[in-house]
Every structure is written in C-alpha cells, then in structure tokens.
Design goal:
Length: 175
C-alpha cells in the first residue's frame, strides 16, 4: 500500500493549472454469499435402478465469476459421479455434468476485478421414483458458498502543476 500527497485544487487570480488523472486501486467490501443448485437427473434406461448410493463425489468445474452492473454473476458446472447399487445388489455408476448460474450480492461495478473461491458447502443426492415407478431419477441439492474480494480502479483528477505568468505561486497544504 502506497501513500502519497497530492494536490487537488488551487485558488487565486491569474493562475494557470495543469490537471492530470491519478489512478488508484482500492479493495471493495468482501462478499460472502451462498446459493443452491437444485436439479433432477434421469438415469439412462440401460443403467440399473438406484436403491442405495454407495459413494459420491461432487466437484465445481469451469467456474466463471464476473462483476456485473449491481451484482456478481456466477456460473460453472457441477460434476457429479456416484457408485450405487440396485435392490438386487448389482452395481451401477453414473457421471453427469450439471451447468449452473446465479447472481450474488449487490453494488458491484462492471470494472471490479474479483478474486476468491466457490466451494461446495453441502450436497445431497436423493434417489426418486419416475412416472413409471422406477427409481431412475436423482434429486440433486447442492449448496455453494462464495467468498469473494473485489478490487476497483478509481480515477481522481489532480493538480499536476500551477504557474502564474504575472506573479509567484505559493502552495499551501491542507489535510
């Protein structure tokens, strides 16, 4: 973090000024939020029905976090893989990629550069029965948390130089 003194104004008669732009980076307030992804997946008919989920893994892939006008857009994919058995003990496996998108927070500017992470907080895969009475559907309920920090570039007009053709210029500093 750098600190510097700048001139921001001048007063007097017959004074000519050279104005410039100072670009400063500043952190925005941290954004912590969460959202839920709910989907229903239907297993292919060639796969056995789901009686019990034996093992599951859910990962976030292809994450995209962008500051929009007034909010933060989040999108990506949930990659779900599971190993399960049917009522007769036959094993089945299944992998699926589920796209998701949503909006978080308020007050974000499009120029804000965001850093941070999305994490899976809680995940449930629940077998459900389809319209044929077979357990071939999977209800997906995943809570995703976001911990983001923003950085914005702020521009401020400053006085670079001052001179008076008819006299001398004396600078006075104020806090």
């Amino acid at each position: 973090q750098n600190h510097t003194e700048i001139l921001s104004g001048i007063s007097g008669e017959g004074i000519e000024c050279l104005q410039g732009i100072l670009r400063m980076e500043q952190n925005t307030a941290p954004l912590k939020d969460r959202f839920t992804v709910k989907e229903e997946i239907t297993l292919p008919s060639a796969k056995p029905e789901i009686a019990d989920v034996l093992w599951q893994t859910i990962d976030l892939t292809e994450q995209d976090i962008r500051a929009m006008d007034g909010k933060v857009m989040v999108r990506g994919n949930l990659r779900i893989c599971m190993l399960y058995c049917d009522t007769e003990g036959n094993l089945g496996s299944f992998c699926e990629k589920i796209p998701f998108s949503g909006y978080l927070g308020e007050g974000s500017e499009p120029k804000t550069e965001l850093t941070g992470t999305l994490q899976i907080e809680d995940a449930k895969l629940t077998p459900t029965v389809d319209e044929d009475g077979e357990a071939r559907q999977l209800a997906v309920d995943v809570a995703v948390s976001a911990a983001l920090q923003g950085r914005e570039t702020v521009e401020r007009e400053i006085l670079q130089d001052a001179y008076a053709p008819t006299g001398t210029v004396t600078l006075e500093k104020e806090t």
